[in-house]
Amino acid sequence: MSEANWYVVHTYSGYENKVKANIEKTIENRHLENEILEVKVPMQNVQETKNGVTKQAQKKLFPGYVLVHMVMNDDTWYVVRNTRGVTGFVGPGSKPVMLEPAELKSLGIGGGKTEEAPKPRIIVDIEKGDTVVVIAGAWEDTTGVVQSVNTQRQTVTINVELFGRETPVEIGFADVKKK
User: What are the pLDDT digits (tens) for 126-167?
Assistant: First the structure.
């Protein structure tokens, strides 16, 4: 059996969850559980403020796209491609292009032949307005004031001086320490 990879499927906007449900139903009906392993609609947590009220909400990370973990063959291609709401695979012509491990990692999906253990969550005592020093990476030894803290992505945004201007830069929790 061939190796399963992640592919991106383009859908009509607003049909992502319907497409996911339709593909999952087809997998069940055609007994393709060993060939189409998982279907995902990537989501992200966001804070929305409406009428002065702030609340947490889930938004689609890529509206109009669904990720499918599958063994690519004629049958699975046909099933996914002909699902109601699907306009096609992402790739040149009718040839789907699989996602690379680096792309999967940036989406928080273990990729490649070996599943990676999820990164441990880092808890920091850093708040907006704190001064931090970057201890690793391209901005090492840079000092900046925290503009925002994103616990979901495990990053802080600091302003650094670049070309004589204050520029916001996003740094991972592991690469900064409180000054």
Answer: 888 988 888 888 788 888 889 998 877 788 899 887 777 888
Same domain, yes or no, for 86 and 173?
A: no
Number of structural domains (the chain) is 2
Distance of CA 177 to the CA centre of its chain: 26
Residue 126 and residue 149 in contact, taking contact as beta carbons nearer than 8 Å: yes
Burial of 23 (0-12, 13-18, 19+ CB in 10 A): buried
Cβ contacts of 26 within 8 Å, gap of 6 or more? 32, 79, 83
Asked whether residue 117 is domain-assigned, the answer is: no
Over pLDDT 70: what percentage of the chain? 91
The Cα 54–Cα 151 span in angstroms is 17
Q: Are residues 100 and 143 in the same domain?
A: no
pTM of the model: 0.59
How buried is residue 18: exposed, middle or buried, by Cβ count under 10 Å (0-12/13-18/19+)? middle
Q: Do both 159 and 82 map to the same domain?
A: no
- 21 & 71 share domain: yes
Measured between alpha carbons, how far is 71 from 82 in angstroms, rounded to an integer?
A: 16
- Distance CA(153)–CA(139), nearest Å, equals 19
Instruction: Please tell me whether residues 20 and 71 are part of one structural domain.
Output: yes
Quick check: is 65 in a domain? Answer: yes
